[in-house]
Amino acid sequence: MLLTEFFGFFSLSAFTMWGFLMAFFFNVFIYSIGLKRETTLLLSSFIMMVSYTVSDYFFNWLSLESTVYLDWALYDYATVTALFLAYKLLKKTSPSMMYIALGLIINSIFSLLMYGDIFINETNEPWFFWDVYTFTVNIVDFIMIVALIVDRDFLGLHKLKKKIFSYFNSNDTRKVI
């Protein structure tokens, strides 16, 4: 059963928007009581809330052409750019920033693939990839919401990144035989 058949398209979209809104309000609350004075976390949660509100399906109804997947990919790239500019402005980051950037890039790639499948290949019948797209994008959105709330490396992505970079940056001179 498709996620959209079980939950409905609009309720998943509304749930995601609500999740980013709640993550922003949570970070405003934590910031205001002084538990965490991370302006990057507050700013990144604000950027994500605004991005997902602006790019919501309701705002795409104004367009006569149905290019929603391309629009979503462009919104994701604009959001990554806004997050990068916020990072450059504040000169610091939070553990959730990598989760958000990676999640937006994954979502944008899947949106571009869906756009290509529907508008370039002109696929009209749902098939396996459409289910993969729906599941992946919604799981990635949920992970980004959780990352903004907990602000921890809960999946070990930072550790993995350090291992990968240390592997490639090591001065290991082993020879391949």
Write a structural description.
The model has no long low-confidence stretch (mean pLDDT 83). The N and C termini lie far apart (51 Å). α2 packs antiparallel against α3 and α3 (39-54) runs antiparallel to α5 (68-90). The protein has helices at 3-7, 9-32, 39-54, 57-60, 68-90, 95-120, 128-150, 157-169. The relative contact order is 0.13. It is built from eight helices and no strands. With 177 residues, it is mainly α. It is globular and about 50 Å long.
TL;DR?
Helix content is 76%, strand content 0%.
- Percent of residues in helices comes to over 70%
Task: Give a count of the beta strands, DSSP E runs of length 2 or more.
Answer: 0
Shape: globular
What structural class do you assign from the helix and strand content?
mainly alpha
The SSE string, one letter per element, is: HHHHHHHH
Q: Largest beta sheet, briefly?
A: none
Alpha-carbon distance between the two ends: 51 Å
Uncertain residue segments: none
| Tally of contiguous helical segments | 8
Radius of gyration: 19 Å
Mean pLDDT score, rounded? 83
- The proportion of residues in beta strands is under 5%
Highlighted features:
177 residues; 8 helices; mainly alpha; 76% helix; 0% strand
How do the helices and strands line up, and which of them pair or pack?
Blueprint: H1 3-7, H2 9-32, H3 39-54, H4 57-60, H5 68-90, H6 95-120, H7 128-150, H8 157-169
Helix pairs in contact: 2-3, 2-7, 3-5, 5-6, 6-7
